[in-house]
Design a protein that fits this description.
Keywords: Ubl conjugation pathway. With about 675 residues, this protein is mostly helical. It contains 27 helices and seven strands.
């Protein structure tokens, strides 16, 4: 408690706009309130009326003039008028702060507390109660109380920072907000083992409106260790701009990003309707579990637990009445202070935040940044978190948003796989323990998630075939080892869209690989009347190949043994549970299939016959094309030729001269069968 000095003001000359008094200070026993008016308990009649809003103060000039430069000038301006009324509607702190300042001027003891110190400090600055007018004036004493009492206390720093919400911009200009934020940050980063001050304990499953004047103390004891998230509840009562100042200061001082992210989720759970805790019985969502994401002193942490979120509204009885504009400001501020490290906040929290950001039309740049953050840890998402309503009323769910999230995930995967060596030390530290590029199961988890999402959104009659196909084909083929989930989604889409043409149904089924279907899925697909006939044949062939391979590899026993019996029983069970209309359609399809099989066998027979004819012709051609040996007929022909030549020589012999007889016999003709 600071007591103002009761001094008589000596005679001073009035000049330069400052009015001095030559009368001693007014002695009083205190102030009396009469309705909306305050009166000084003294026999001396008041000669000055100060009006602040609806509250009026009937005071005396001289006690105020002796310590307030503002009142000096105001009274000086009234010297030529008969009115003695001054209006101070813009006084920071309002009537409560002026009451304390007036009591200080009258020499009445004033109790300085964490609740009134910020308003009184701003009022003293407004009234210009400086050391130039009086030694030990109100500015000096309030500043000393702030520096030596408030800032050394955790609880007082929180209370003062909370009280500064109504004192802008005075509290900012006087550095009250900055100093309190720094003090809170230093204490929050302190070793929990060394904490000896009081702090607010966690309220068990309470979603009531945050009220800083209803905080429940938890005093640390020697036997009970202080959890590292001890400061969450206290800082969550602050307004969003002050909370951002505190978190920024905490991040600068090196707080672990897991704790910073957990504090942000805790704050969002308090101030954003729609982030209601799991198990509360509301369909509006799940809020931050105060202890779920905080790390203990040994570095362990637990995961975020999410719930269903079908409607983004809260209960008016449980949640603070925050307007849409304020909610938008809170979301934008929280997005800007989320630590950049992966897993600093859960993917479930990011998706809830993204849902509300779309609903409240947050700045597009921040929404894009939030989508990229979700893509970094998309494999952690759940189906309930992805079912975000579409606010454009084209489809029931925002399929385009999920498509963008999947694209961000694939881009992140590609960048991590393509350049793992380019990561700097800071990046390595950022993603330490959470590398996804070397984890092949991430794409498989995302594939299962996308298949489940497609099954859910396929029931929407407004969902176009193109959107369904693009989302189904976004992942590479290696991401799916089994297409059963994709088959369920296709079957659900065909059921919800019975007017599709044959071409559209074939186009839809192209996204599925029949060879990746399990035996049970093959049996169901073979009986599915909604599938195109060509797809049914492919499924039957695939099933036959699988069974043959299984038999060849010894995975299945003989048909009469036990391992093969469950397949037969499952087929019978499926047929018995099928409605009559389905069975009739299947009978017709089965007849067509048998016809195709018969035609196929006929073609095989014709092919074999043609192959035999071809072989016969080939043998005949080979015989004809072989080189011919000398036969008896050829030898006889040569003999006849020689005989003809001899006869010709005998006829012309007498005409030939003797010299010609010595000539060489002419060369024989070349015999040829041609």
């Amino acid at each position: 408690m600071w007591d103002s000095e009761t001094e008589s003001v000596g005679g001073r000359d009035y000049g330069n706009g400052v009015l001095s008094t030559s009368k001693p200070g007014v002695k009083t026993d205190g102030f009396e309130q009469r309705g909306q008016s305050w009166h000084v308990a003294t026999d001396i009649p008041s000669d000055l009326l100060v009006q602040i809003g609806d509250v009026s103060f009937h005071l005396h000039k001289y006690p105020l003039l002796s310590r307030s430069g503002k009142m000096n000038r105001a009274v000086y301006e009234l010297r030529e008028t008969e009115l003695n009324k001054i209006a101070l509607d813009d006084l920071p702190g309002g009537p409560e702060a002026f009451e304390l300042a007036a009591k200080f001027c009258y020499g009445i003891a004033v109790d300085l507390t964490a609740t009134n110190i910020s308003g009184l400090r701003c009022a003293a600055e407004y009234l210009e109660m400086t050391e130039d007018l009086e030694e030990g004036n109100l500015i000096f004493k309030t500043e000393a109380f702030l520096s030596y009492v408030v800032l050394s206390s955790w609880r007082d720093s929180i209370v003062v920072l909370k009280s500064c919400e109504k004192l802008s911009p005075w509290a900012e200009n006087l550095q009250i907000v900055r100093r309190c934020s720094e003090s809170i940050a230093w204490k929050a980063c302190a070793n929990p083992k060394g904490i000896r001050w009081q702090y607010t304990g966690k309220h068990p499953r309470s979603v009531s409106s945050p009220k800083w004047n209803e905080m429940k103390d938890s005093s640390p004891s020697r036997n009970t260790p202080v959890p590292p998230d001890w400061w969450f509840e206290d800082v969550s009562i602050l307004r969003i701009d002050h909370f951002v100042r505190v978190i920024t200061a905490i991040k600068v001082k090196g707080m672990r990003y897991e704790l910073v992210g957990a504090a942000i989720m805790h704050y969002a759970g308090k101030w954003l309707p729609g982030l209601v805790k799991e198990g509360s019985g509301s369909v509006s969502g799940a809020a931050v579990d105060e202890g779920s994401n905080s790390s203990n002193s040994n570095g362990s942490s637990s995961s975020w637990k999410g719930g269903l979120h079908m409607i983004v509204v809260g209960s008016k009885e449980d949640l603070p009445a925050v307007q849409a504009k304020d909610q938008r400001m809170i979301i934008e501020s929280l997005i800007s202070i989320i630590p950049p490290q992966k897993d600093s906040v859960s993917c479930s929290f990011l998706l809830r935040l993204l849902r509300m950001a779309n609903m409240l039309k947050v700045a597009p740049a921040l929404v894009t940044e939030l989508e990229k953050r979700v893509g970094m840890q998309f494999e952690q998402a759940t189906l309930a978190d992805l079912l975000i309503p579409s606010y454009k009323h084209e489809t029931l769910y925002d399929v385009d948003l999920v498509q963008r999230l999947l694209e961000h995930f694939l881009v992140q995967e590609q960048s991590e796989n393509s350049s793992p060596s380019r990561q700097s030390f800071s990046d390595t530290k950022m993603y330490d323990g959470a590398q996804r590029g070397t984890n092949p199961n991430a794409k498989m988890r995302v594939a299962r998630l996308v298949d489940s999402y497609l099954t859910e959104v396929s029931r929407d009659r407004n969902l176009s075939l193109t959107k369904f196909q693009v989302l189904a084909e976004a992942l590479p083929e290696s991401a799916r080892t089994c297409d059963d989930g994709l088959y369920r989604a296709i079957d659900s889409y065909l059921k919800a869209h019975p007017t599709l043409t044959e071409h559209e149904r074939k186009r839809l089924c192209r996204v599925m690989d029949c060879q990746k279907l399990s035996i049970d899925a093959c049996m169901h697909a073979a009986q599915n009347e909604r599938l195109p006939l060509r797809v049914v044949v492919q499924v039957l062939f695939s099933e036959q190949v699988k069974i043959s391979n299984a038999l060849a590899n010894g995975l299945l026993k003989e048909p009469g043994e036990s391992n093969y019996q469950p397949l037969i029983s499952n087929r019978k069970t499926l047929l018995e549970g099928t409605p009559q209309s389905f069975q009739e359609g299947w009978a017709s399809a089965k007849k067509d299939i048998n016809t195709l099989k018969f035609e196929l066998e006929t073609m095989k027979t014709k092919y074999l016959a043609l192959q035999n004819d071809m072989e016969t012709l080939q043998r005949q051609f080979d015989k004809v094309a072989k080189p011919k040996q000398t036969s008896a007929w050829t030898t006889g022909w040569k003999k006849l030729t020689k005989l003809a030549k001899a006869t010709e020589n005998n006829d012309i012999g007498p005409q030939v001269q003797n010299g010609d007889l010595s000539r060489k016999t002419p060369r024989r003709w070349r015999n040829s069968i041609s």
